[in-house]
Amino acid sequence: MKKYGLVGFPLTHSFSQKYFQQKFIDEGLQDCVFNNYQIEHIDEVKTMLEDRELQGFCITIPHKKNILPYLHFATEAVKQMQACNCVKIREGKLYGHNTDVAGFEHSFTPHLKPQHTKALILGGSGGAAAAVMFVLNKLNIAFKKVSRVKEADNFTYKELDKDILKMYTVIINATPLGTYPETDTAPDIPYEYLTTDHYLFDLVYNPPLTRFLSQGKAKGAAIQNGYPMLTIQAEENWKIWNE
């Protein structure tokens, strides 16, 4: 039996398990299973790795950075971002990859317009945000992180005003705000200053239209949720596990 899985905590709403279970059915892969490994502390991964049938696993909050010390090999992207969301296991060795990069880049770029030259990243401390920053650098899109606490070279939410939003026409939500079941929440930005020049990208995929995106849509902004990013990175994971 070939086993795959998802490592994270908590895992109340697992996209990956449902996706791969359906994939195995659609492709007639009767020798494959996908399990959720709800691991609160990363050192619990040692027990999981004792299963010799485990071929690989993907990683979500809060362990995309925590897994790094357990890797035997890592791609240059993982080393640069210090975040890993995909591990391939071969002969007891762990090979770290980051497929969030491909997932974000291929779902983000179709809506880009010439005016989208500067971006705000709401949040920015998690592993997925590291992939966002990696891609923005690759695309030569300048960016600033936005957080509640003032740090070097960032904005606070209270600092955001009409002039800042006029300059930063791309706004990426890298926080969990708006995720089901807390669907009435959204990042605290001045939505009244959004225009048709703006592009809002939400890493949240459930619900498909978050409050963050709906307020952008109401102002005529381009919007995209996180679902395509998830499906792209899932397929990238599958390629890595089986190449």
Automatic annotation (TrEMBL):
Keywords: Amino-acid biosynthesis, Aromatic amino acid biosynthesis, Oxidoreductase. It holds the Pfam family Shikimate_dh_N. InterPro entries: Aminoacid_DH-like_N_sf, NAD(P)-bd_dom_sf, Shikimate_DH-bd_N, Shikimate_DH_fam. Its EC number is 1.1.1.25. GO terms for molecular function: NADP binding; shikimate 3-dehydrogenase (NADP+) activity. Residues 6-87 form the Shikimate dehydrogenase substrate binding N-terminal domain. GO terms for biological process: aromatic amino acid family biosynthetic process; chorismate biosynthetic process; shikimate metabolic process. GO terms for cellular component: cytosol. Pathway: Metabolic intermediate biosynthesis; chorismate biosynthesis; chorismate from D-erythrose 4-phosphate and phosphoenolpyruvate: step 4/7. PANTHER family: BIFUNCTIONAL 3-DEHYDROQUINATE DEHYDRATASE_SHIKIMATE DEHYDROGENASE, CHLOROPLASTIC, SHIKIMATE DEHYDROGENASE. This is Shikimate dehydrogenase.
